[in-house]
TrEMBL record, chain A:
Full protein name: Uncharacterized protein
Organism name: Sedimentitalea nanhaiensis
Top-level taxonomy: Bacteria, Pseudomonadati, Pseudomonadota, Alphaproteobacteria, Rhodobacterales
UniProtKB/TrEMBL annotation, chain B:
Organism ancestry: Bacteria, Pseudomonadati, Pseudomonadota, Alphaproteobacteria, Rhodobacterales
Keyword line: Acyltransferase, Alginate biosynthesis, Cell membrane, Membrane, Transferase, Transmembrane, Transmembrane helix
Example of a GO MF term: acyltransferase activity
GO cellular component, one term: plasma membrane
Protein name: Probable alginate O-acetylase AlgI
Membrane topology: Multi-pass membrane protein
One GO BP: alginic acid biosynthetic process
Length: 363, 473
């Protein structure tokens, strides 16, 4: 008994010494500006508020996504660009997506430099972000334009989230978006309490609003969890960060799997209604709707074409499904960060160009 | 409920707390209930199969012990074999054989109405059926007395640490451990905890981290030559860490409760020939196959050709035990082939195995032989991991003529660190011949090592949710 207790005490002491040593080394490396992959590895496990606080203090820090993809900013840029545009240029492609969709259209433009293109995008943006932007950017499109709605397979479960901070635990971009729920024949928008980076900043000096926002996340966002948002003080310990990282990523994966298994959020129905409404709205405004379905190689994933197909067929909308042109299980088509290689994007770009041409001919 | 999930450790904490408070017989009853809860958490419907196996083998054991006529004893043994192997046949192999029969008819030019069976494979069925079979066969051979306490016997069948993936315990080892009061000691608790920690590192830090890279290559339609080689090497490490990690945790958990489960792995990749490999890999299965199948078929008693036939049959069935697919049979035949070739050559070449003198040259020679034999083992793993016969042919071709380059996804730094730690650990066991080599070291050093292992586990743990590979068997 005595020996066991002594051993336990010694193990705890060694752990504390080891943890302190690692913390000192990481702190020194950071102070020297040596943000190597090892430092980042430990940083991935900070609590979400901890990561956001560090990014807020230094928005230009490597990997910071603090100022990225806030909808009011994106819409202001879009409006300014639209106001400066000549009106007789011919159709402009207006895409609402993420880097995957941007890569495809950029590859198409490489093949046809005359293509006019404007995009609004967020990192790993879920369909509720792209669809919300499509709705809000309505004034910044003209008749004859081509509206592109991007849907990323790995982000489909995030339709039950209000912000990327809750479901991208390792790099929680704080930008927000509404959650859509089926209501009668359409969709009901549930707006997040925080919609702009200014409001995000103001939370620090407005505890009541911060609490209300946390309450809304806890109530509405399927991914919100004390594991990822609580006990910020534990961020001081690298060991605690490692443990949080493990638990946090497991929590996010499990929540995604639960959503895809059909428990909690009706993502199939909502996605279907989004596609139908997207096509109807674009056509009502005299625009050509195109849906781009990107199948990624993430482990927790949905077959996005299968899920979207009923809506695509009902709306009779043109679409590009990457899985129809490249097998997403073939790892030779991906670069290390999970994006498609330029060769594969060029293939998608060719298909996209043909789609645009066909859609314009049919008009 | 996986060993790598928090809910298992919560479950184990509750079981342990109750365990220390109860007297011996009550401990056994509580462990039986806990074992059924543990299994029921996978799928409660299949508890009925465990119960059926338990009732039949308990009754058969008692009747066999009192039966004096040999034909009556044989009849009883056949009942046990029919029930256990029948269950295994229906739930594990029926769909496979029907599919194969259908394909054969189609190949022969007959049109068969398509039919499919959707039978769910009960977790661990191959393990507990073999375990209970060893009980009745041992009684039949008069090597074991039957267990008279039904609930103790039920615990022998369903003991949760080893229920779903072994080790496949023998009744003569585990039943006395159940029947007699167990001594709980701080020393056993500590050793059990170290085994659990080592098992978790193997599974979480190494096997789970390697799995995505292996899966990516085995799902890729056009891997390069080095992709196939690296993925197969990595799969060799993955399956060892996955399965021996499970066994370590099972043994550790049992040890903390005062049970002694058999060792299932003894540094198998340090083997220099197939015979040595099978003395080190999945020992509880290989000894089961030897004692109840190979010897029953005649072993090496009928001359060389019958010996080779028995080896091939035993290993083919051993392969089929792993899963209802032809690639497992092929893997078994490959292992049988290696054993037969080794047996044929062993007469003309002096063995260089474990007993050889360990001079410097002998060590170099042994290391070279380990490296060469490892490649033979790895080709077996390619057969084992492949998803179809076409992939076996394709990947085998790519080993020699595949395109250049490397597209396999990188594995995390923690996995490399884990592999180094595991290699050092296994080398130390191999060199000292003592699995508890660390116990002679000063306390402070040991505490530092345990702390480092805990840190490594946290470092490598990301999403430890993958099921253990051997659960499907």
């Amino acid at each position: 008994m005595k020996r066991t207790a002594a051993m336990l005490g010694l193990i705890l002491l060694c752990l504390a010494l080891l943890d302190t040593g690692v913390a000192v080394v990481l702190h020194w490396a950071e102070a020297q500006g040596r943000m190597g992959s090892l430092v980042r590895y430990f940083d991935y496990g900070r609590s979400v508020p901890g990561k956001l606080a560090r990014w807020e203090a230094d928005p230009d820090a490597p990997g910071s996504l603090y100022n990225v993809a806030w909808r009011p900013d994106a819409l202001a840029v879009s409006a300014a660009g639209f106001a400066d545009e000549a009106t007789d240029t011919g159709p402009v492609i207006r895409s609402y997506g993420m880097s995957f969709v941007n890569d495809i259209i950029a590859a198409a433009r490489d093949q046809d430099p005359d293509l006019l293109w404007d995009n609004l995008a967020g990192p790993g943006a879920p369909p509720n972000f792209t669809y919300a932007l499509f709705q809000e950017d309505r004034a910044n499109r003209r008749r004859g334009d081509i509206a592109v709605l991007g849907i990323l397979s790995s982000s489909v479960p995030a339709m039950a989230a209000l912000s990327s901070r809750s479901w991208v635990f390792e790099q929680p971009a704080p930008y927000t978006y509404p959650i859509f729920q089926p209501e009668e024949d359409g969709l009901k928008r549930i707006e997040p309490l925080v919609t702009s980076v200014a409001q995000e900043h103001a939370l620090a000096s407005d505890p009541a609003q911060a609490r209300a926002w946390a309450d809304q996340l806890a109530e509405r966002d399927a991914f919100y969890s004390p594991i990822t948002f609580g006990a910020v003080w534990l961020d001081a310990s690298p060991l605690a960060r490692l443990v949080r990282r493990s638990l946090g990523t497991a929590h996010v994966s499990q929540t995604k799997a639960d959503i895809l298994a059909g428990s909690g959020y009706p993502y199939v129905e909502v996605l279907d209604r989004m596609i139908v409404d997207f096509a109807r709205t674009a056509r009502a405004d005299g625009q050509i709707p195109i849906v781009v379905l990107v199948q990624t190689r993430n482990p927790v994933n949905v077959d996005v074409l299968t899920v979207a197909r009923p809506g695509l067929e009902r709306a009779n909308v043109a679409y590009l499904a990457t899985a129809e042109h490249f097998d997403p299980t073939d790892i030779s088509g991906f670069v290390s960060d999970g994006h498609y290689t330029s060769e594969v994007n060029a293939r998608f770009g060719t298909v996209f160009l043909a789609l645009v041409e066909a859609a314009q001919t049919q008009r | 409920m996986l060993f790598t999930q928090l809910n298992f450790w919560l479950f184990f904490a509750i079981v342990s707390a109750l365990y220390v408070l109860l007297p011996h017989k009550a401990q056994n009853r509580m462990l039986l209930v806990a074992s059924y809860i543990f299994y029921g958490a996978w799928d409660w419907r299949f508890l009925s199969l465990i119960l059926l196996s338990t009732f039949i083998d308990y009754a058969v054991g008692l009747r066999m012990a009192t039966a004096t006529r040999q034909d009556k004893r044989k009849q009883l043994l056949w009942i046990s074999l029919a029930v256990n192997l029948g269950m295994l046949g229906i739930f594990k192999y029926l769909g496979f054989f029907l599919d194969s029969f259908q394909e054969l008819l189609t190949w022969a030019g007959y049109t068969a109405d398509p039919f499919t069976l959707s039978i769910v494979l009960p977790v661990g069925i191959s393990f507990y059926t073999f375990q209970t079979l060893s009980y009745t066969i041992d009684i039949y051979r008069r090597e074991l007395k039957p267990c008279h306490d039904f609930l103790d016997f039920a615990l022998f069948v369903a003991f949760f640490p080893q229920l779903v993936a072994g080790p496949i315990e023998r009744a003569k080892n585990l039943l006395p451990n159940i029947s007699a009061p167990r001594i709980l000691s701080w020393d056993a608790l500590g050793r059990g905890a170290v085994l659990c920690l080592l098992g978790l590192i193997k599974k979480v830090v190494i096997a789970d981290a390697i799995a995505p890279s292996v899966d990516a290559i085995y799902a890729s339609p056009d891997p390069t030559r080095w992709d196939v080689i690296l993925a197969t090497w990595l799969f060799a490490i993955q399956i060892y860490c996955d399965f021996s990690g499970y066994t370590d945790i099972a043994r550790g958990v049992a040890k903390m409760l005062g049970f002694r489960l058999m060792r299932n792995f003894a540094q198998p990749y340090f083997a220099v020939d197939p015979q040595e490999f099978w003395r080190r890999w999945h020992i509880s299965l290989s000894t089961w196959l030897r004692d109840y199948l190979y010897i029953s078929l005649g072993g090496n008693r009928g001359g060389p050709w019958k010996t080779y036939r028995n080896l091939m049959a035993t290993m083919a069935l051993g392969g089929l035990w792993h899963g209802a697919a032809w690639n497992f049979v092929l893997w078994g035949l490959y292992q049988g082939g290696l054993l037969s070739i080794h047996r044929a050559l062993a007469g003309t070449h002096k063995r260089s195995g474990e007993g050889a003198q360990r001079s410097a040259m002998a060590w170099v020679r042994r290391i070279l032989m380990i490296a060469v034999f490892f490649q033979a083992v790895c080709y077996g793993w390619l057969l084992f991991r492949a998803t179809s016969f076409a992939q076996i042919v394709d990947f085998t071709g790519r080993l020699f003529t595949g395109p250049p380059g490397l597209t396999i996804p990188t594995i995390p730094a923690a996995a490399y660190l884990g592999m180094v730690v595991l290699l050092v650990w296994d080398v130390l066991i191999e060199r000292t011949g003592n699995v508890r080599f660390y116990q002679t070291w000063p306390m402070v050093i040991r505490a530092g090592i345990y702390a480092g292992m805990i840190y490594l586990l946290a470092f490598g743990a990301t999403t430890a949710t993958s099921a253990f590979i051997y659960f499907q068997f």
